[in-house]
């Protein structure tokens, strides 16, 4: 027997607005029945678990114990710039001079997530070394 991950639940102050941000990040839609003011919303990813947003009364207070890691189809740098323009904030930059590493951003409610190198960047780095 095994369990299948159905969704990744993210506690937040405004479920609809945070789902709207993540919908723009991923390029996938919110659930068709979601509306402003809903206390639970979802972003429908094409495979794997859904992103499920739960509105809770308490604010985020410490670093996430679980977070999303994004692998862009463009470069890590282009995606980082795009996400900052959408409203993300820079938390930490772990890019290394050799091109490896990642960037830690936070969504509009402070939930940390990582932007990794694209598959093409990984292949190019492997070919260099």
Please mark out the parts with pLDDT under 50 across 5 or more consecutive residues, or reply none: none
- Please provide the count of β strands: 7
Beta fraction: 15-25%
Report the structural category.
alpha/beta
Fraction of residues in H or I helices: 25-40%
Overall, the morphology is globular
- In the sheet with the most strands, the strands line up as 4-7-6-5
Number of H/I helices: 3
The biggest sheet amounts to: 4 strands, mixed
Average pLDDT for all residues? 93
Distance between the termini: 42 Å
**Chain oligomer state:** single chain
String of helices and strands: EHEEEHEEEH
Radius of gyration: 16 Å
Q: What are the defining features of this structure?
A:
four-stranded mixed beta sheet; three-stranded mixed beta sheet; 129 residues; 3 helices
What can you tell me about this protein's structure?
- By secondary structure, this protein is of the alpha/beta class.
- Helix content is 26%, strand content 25%.
- It has three helices and seven strands.
- The protein has helices at residues 15-26, 76-86, 119-128; strands at 7-12, 40-43, 50-55, 68-70, 89-93, 103-106, 112-115.
- It has a four-stranded mixed β-sheet with strand order 4-7-6-5, covered by helices on one side.
- A hairpin with a 6-residue loop joins β2 and β3 (50-55).
- The model has no long low-confidence stretch (mean pLDDT 93).
